[in-house]
Amino acid sequence: LNRMWLSDDCPRCSESRCLSYAFKYIKRRFPKIGWVQSFADERCGALGVVYQAANFGYYGTHTSTFWELGGVMYHNIAMTRKNGAPAEAHLQANKHLAIKHRFRQFRYLYFIKKQAKRDVILARQPYPKRGTTP
User: Are 54 and 13 in contact (CB under 8 A)?
Assistant: First the structure.
């Protein structure tokens, strides 16, 4: 579940429906998987309301480095990975032109197997809301 994006033209609740289909597929195809982890990025101006609506639990935040080059944002991994994609090589070759940013990433977990909750070492927290600092 990497970089999910749906158009605003999609029907209401399309994000939750897509997540539901994905979880059903994962549960059937990969029965050993206990949970799905996803992040909402502050750089996108969101706190993860789609994950909140889909019954993900919120498990805190951390700060990550992002690089902006030519209007495109890259996670710090793209700056450090060797033998990566051509876009990563372009970023690394032009590091002197890139602008460094620090943004919060909000961690969400969805439990495909409810018993997997006992294996999580992080504490569930109240959902972040606009105007509050998680």
Answer: no
